[in-house]
Give the backbone structure.
Amino acid sequence: MKSSLFIWLFTFCSFHFGLKLRSAPIVPSVNLSHYRAEDPMQGALRDISCFKEQGLTQFQIDSEYDKWFFNDPNRISSVLPEEFMDINIMTFNIRYPNPDDGFNYWPNRKELVASMIRYHDADILGIQEAFRSQLDELVAMLPDYAWVGVCRTSGDQNPNPDNEFSAILYKLERFDVLQNQTFWLSESPDIVGEAGWDAALPRIVTWAQFRDRRTDKTFFHFNTHFDHRGKEARAKSAQLLLNKITDIAGPSPVLISGDFNAVPESTPYQYLTAPQESERIYDALTLTESPHHGPLSTLTSGFKIAGVPGRRIDYIFIKNGVRILRHAILSDSWGGRLPSDHLPVLATCRIP
C-alpha cells in the first residue's frame, strides 16, 4: 500500500509540478535565500531554500516526510514570494584609468569598485567611463557577470588605443541577452565615433534586451554617458534618447541608467521627465516605494566628499510600468577612500 501511494505521488508531482525526487539530499554549495511559503500540493506552509548548485539556481522544499528538488522557477511562482523576482539595477561611473589620479589611480581602487558591485548584489548595471582593460579586470574579479557594449571611438570591443565603453554588466546565470546594439549621440547616430553638436567627445548609448530566466519576462536596458561640456549636445542627446527608446522598446518595460552630466533643474533632465512629453521617462528616486537611502548627490569632488550638495547627475530612470521598490545613492567608503569620483546609484525594481 505504501509503495503504491509513493509511486502515485511521484507520478503526480512529476507531471503536474515538474518536481524531481532524489534519493539523497544535496548539500548546497551556496545558500542564496530561505522562505516559508505555501505548498500548492498540500495547502500548508513548507520550507523553501534557494541555492546555487554547479552554477545553476536550484530550489529545495523540505517537509517532515520528504525532500523535493526542482529547478524550473516558472513552475513554482505560486510558492515563491514576489521579492525573488525583483531586480537590483545599478548605475556606476567607475572613472577611467588616469595615472594622474595618483593614489586614486584605477589599480589602487579596482577592488573597491568590484566589492561595491558584489556586496550590493547588483543583478544588472550600467557602467560609464570603463576602458576595455577595466571591463576585463572587473569580470575577472566578478566571474558571475558578463557584459555587452562597444567602444565609443572605434565601435568595436577591441579598441586600439583603448577608450571608453558605456557597457552593461549582467549576471550570466540570471539573464539571457536577446539583442544588443550601440548608437552615437549625434546628428548621425549610426556613424561610429562621431561627436554630436557641441560635444567635446563622442558619446554613446548601449542598449540590450534581456530575458529574466527566473520569470521569463523580457525588458530593455539603455545605458549612456552625456557630454560634460556641450550644453546643446546634452539637450539634443535627451531628445534623441527618448526617440530611440520609443522606437526600439515600444511598450516593453525599460530601465535606463547613466551619467547624464545634468542636475534635476537642467534642461536635459526636464525634457526627459516632462509630464507633457508622451515619450517621457521617470526618475526612479521620485517613484521609490520606500524612503531613499544615502546622500542626494552623486559627485565626490575628486574622491574627497561623498556627495557634493546639489550635484546629482547620475540616474536610474524607468518606463512602461516598472515599479521601484527601493532607491539609494551609495556612499560606502574604506577608511575615507571612495571607489570612484562618482557614487553609484542602486534601485530594486520589479518588471511588470
Observations:
- The CA atoms of residues 249 and 344 lie 25 Å apart.
- The chain has a mean pLDDT of 85.
- The radius of gyration is 23 Å.
- The longest strand covers residues 30-39.
